[in-house]
Amino acid sequence: MNPYAAGRQPRESGWIKLNTNENPYPPSPKVMEALRRVEPSELRLYPDGDSGAMRAAAAKNLGVGVENVFAGNGSDEVLALAFQAFFSGRENVLTPDISYGFYPVWSQLYGVGTKTIPLKEDLTVDTRDYRGGRGVILANPNAPTGLALTRSEVGEIARNNPNGVVVIDEAYIDFSGVDSAVGLIGTYDNLLVTRTFSKSYALAGLRIGFAVGDKSLIDGLRRVKNAFNAYPLGLLAQTGATAAMEDVAYWDEARRRVIRTRGQTADKLRAMGRAVTDSQTNFLLMEAENAKALYEYLYENKILVRYWDTPAMNRFLRITVGTDAEMEAFINCMERQRYD
């Protein structure tokens, strides 16, 4: 089995880290306030195994019932449980050939017969290719392309795959201009939407994710979870996530800052003659004639971006959107590279 290879996590100072799509801004101050209120004596007890308060906050934010929300230790765990619950042992589970690198790992681990479908030449998903599967796993917006389907297009995929669960991974939806597929939950009982707190809520260090779907799917996830780990989310994670969701104004301003910086950076790269996708995420996918050499040049200048040495992706670099100062340093380095 080929395990997932995460982006580098340097511990020494001085790096501009644009390789793992973390939020450049800290979480809401209300998160730290809530964590400070936790009594140390509470840590001797097991946490709420069903993450009730956090699920209630997510349900309120999204306009669904608490019974429609499942919580897990990061969206990666939630997705892995979904693979076990809904795809294990099945053939013809449809997924793009270029998407999140964990999907093929889970397919190998849980004996899933995935059918990888090529993206179109412009790196978009053609919904006509996703019909009659025994399941679908699709990131929307897609990673690493940064491109998104509309909610109606997601509904088309759910409608055309009635014999399998359609999992839509919305890790980056808060940075997009498209409506979340959560609004389709009441229409399609085979639709499961996963979300994360690692991106727009800036809580990657707490490891929090959740899924939204029909009660039957949530019950299935809960059964698999309880056969694996009855207490996946610790007390501090549940407390932090609940507080983060309550500060909607802070969340909205932080994500808007990322969106603004993304647009400014894309414009500057295009002015330099660089091809950049119309990203709906907190990163940019940039094409380069010699992407590996450019990656190494940036690395030598202590700027980390993401490069994949694979036939499908070795002409691209993925650049996380950092602060304005970080992106200015990145652009300046790119400008110097033109003359080196």
In short:
This protein is α/β, with parallel strands linked by helices. It is built from ten helices and twelve strands.
Account of the protein in words:
- The protein is of the alpha/beta class and 340 residues long.
- It has two domains: 16-26 and 249-337, Alpha-Beta Complex (Aspartate Aminotransferase, domain 1), CATH 3.90.1150.10; 29-246, Aspartate Aminotransferase, domain 2.
- The chain is 36% helix and 15% strand.
- The protein has ten helices and twelve strands.
- The strands form three sheets. Strands 2-8-7-6-5-3-4 form a seven-stranded mixed beta sheet, with helices on both faces. Strands 9-10-12 form a three-stranded antiparallel beta sheet.
- Helix 2 runs parallel beside helix 7 (235-246).
- The protein is globular.
- The termini are far apart.
Secondary-structure blueprint:
Elements: E1 16-17, H1 29-36, H2 52-62, E2 69-72, H3 74-87, E3 91-96, H4 102-109, E4 113-117, E5 135-139, H5 151-159, E6 165-169, E7 191-196, E8 209-213, H6 215-226, H7 235-246, H8 248-271, E9 275-276, E10 283-287, H9 291-300, E11 303-304, E12 316-320, H10 324-337
Parallel strand pairs: 1-11, 3-4, 3-5, 5-6, 6-7
Antiparallel strand pairs: 2-8, 7-8, 9-10, 10-12
Helix pairs in contact: 1-7, 2-7, 3-6, 8-10
